[in-house]
Amino acid sequence: MSSEELRTSFSDFVVSSSTRKKGQTNSSGDSSSEGDLQVTCFTEDLHDVTLHFQIVRFSKQIYVWVGCNTAKFGHLYAAATTRPDNRVSVTSVLGGTSDNTGSGIARRLVLKTGLNIVLACNIPKDSPMLEAAAERKLVEKLKGLGYTRPIAGEANTSIAQK
Question: Which structural domains are found in the chain, ordered by start?
């Protein structure tokens, strides 16, 4: 499948980019009792690589899929803060091990959002620059959607400037 075919079929895959409220039904007729659900899909071209992203925002967690040049699912990781010291724990749910590319991204996303993260990722293991670029684009989009928590210094800086 060519990159253009994938991009076209990927854009057709978008379920909804609007927020579904409590009590509304989705296309299959199921009622949402968990609260708001938002699905966001986008594609970024970085030099000779096309990265595909899908973000599904649930009430207390975010599911993220990052595809590199293909719609392949990749390894699946789950990350969350753990008690008593609020460190981030990551586990490999499907394929891979905890030292793969996706586990680091999942860990850092938990720190930036304060939410549980489930991340599917097929970025090649030997591509740290690609991993950094994908994470940067993902964080930019999460900030734009309002999913990241403000940094303590940022809030004080913006208040001081006013």
Answer: 3-155 (3.30.230.90)
The whole-model pTM stands at 0.70
Contact 115, 29 (CB under 8 A): no
Structure confidence by residue, pLDDT tens digits, 90-112: 988 888 666 678 889 999 999 99
- pLDDT for position 151: 67
pLDDT in tens, 7-16: 555 455 444 4
Instruction: Determine the residue type at 52.
Output: H
For residue 10, the number of C-alpha atoms closer than 13 Å in the C-beta half-sphere is 25
Distance in angstroms (rounded) separating the CA atoms of residues 20 and 118? 20
Helix axes 128-145, 101-113, angle to 10 degrees: 30
Over residues 46-67, the pLDDT tens digits come to 878 999 999 999 988 999 999 9
Burial of 101: CB neighbours in 10 Å, binned 0-12, 13-18, 19+: buried
At residue 65, the 3 state secondary structure works out as: strand
Burial, 153: exposed, middle or buried (Cβ in 10 Å; 0-12, 13-18, 19+)?
exposed
Task: Give the CA dihedral 149, 54, 32, 109, nearest 10 degrees.
Answer: -30
